[in-house]
């Protein structure tokens, strides 16, 4: 009798174990890929570098599939080893932030360097930031300047803003307000708010550019999102600056700010062409 009970208990335990494993398997089952990503995966498995890179990016961004950093790492690693700059930059990002991999600053630097050397602008900016801040690599302002310049010349506003800051503060170079104003100006035109405020301050103080209250007020207004007819907050730099300006100059600056915003962000309200 006891033997029969033991067999029955064992049978129940095995059944429970099988059910538990089945449930766990269902929970951990891979999410089915949509048709377009299935085709991409087929090419990736055959060694297609572009497909491996694109699939890895899809997993990083959660594009058409749930975000999965481990899958991203696996596919990006394959493409990065074959020299794909986009995959190298994304893989560096995963290692830098510890996403799907252990945080590894050295590997982040390695892959940012590989991508930056191929002209990948985002990698150049991020590599420059690592050099500037000394994250995972010895702090080196000269190297930071080098990579910021490469990215800035490709039009990256964050690199332009940082380059302006390097010149303004004399980091890795002699302090040069004229160069700071030049790069702040390019970033400001790209709607980088801090650069707009920095450029306004240089015009207000006459550092690196001719002193010009109207231009200073204009850039402060652009950075603060120009609004007509509203009272300025007590900490708004335009409030103090306006005490040194005539009503006509303030109006001129406000009109210039409005024109800038309309030029850069005006919506086309016309009927769409059929």
Describe this structure in words.
The chain has 274 residues and is an all-alpha fold. It has three domains: 41-118, Tetratricopeptide repeat domain (Serine Threonine Protein Phosphatase 5, Tetratricopeptide repeat, Alpha Horseshoe), CATH 1.25.40.10; 119-191, Alpha Horseshoe (Serine Threonine Protein Phosphatase 5, Tetratricopeptide repeat), CATH 1.25.40.10; 212-261, no CATH class. It has helices spanning 2-28, 35-45, 49-61, 69-81, 85-97, 105-117, 121-133, 141-153, 157-169, 177-189, 193-205, 213-223, 237-242, 247-265. It starts with a helix and ends in a 9-residue tail after the last helix.
Question: How do the helices and strands line up, and which of them pair or pack?
Answer:
Layout: H1 2-28, H2 35-45, H3 49-61, H4 69-81, H5 85-97, H6 105-117, H7 121-133, H8 141-153, H9 157-169, H10 177-189, H11 193-205, H12 213-223, H13 237-242, H14 247-265
Helix pairs in contact: 2-3, 3-4, 4-5, 5-6, 6-7, 7-8, 8-9, 9-10, 10-11, 11-12, 12-14
Topology as H/E string?
HHHHHHHHHHHHHH
CATH architecture of the largest domain: Alpha Horseshoe
Low confidence ranges = 1-29, 268-274
Overall CATH class of the largest domain: Mainly Alpha
Strand content: under 5%
The domain count comes to 3
Largest sheet: none
CA-CA gap between termini: 86 Å
- Kindly report the average pLDDT value: 86
Fraction in helix: 55-70%
What does the radius of gyration come to?
28 Å
List how many beta strands DSSP finds: 0
Q: Shape from CA axes? A: elongated
CATH superfamily of the largest domain: Tetratricopeptide repeat domain
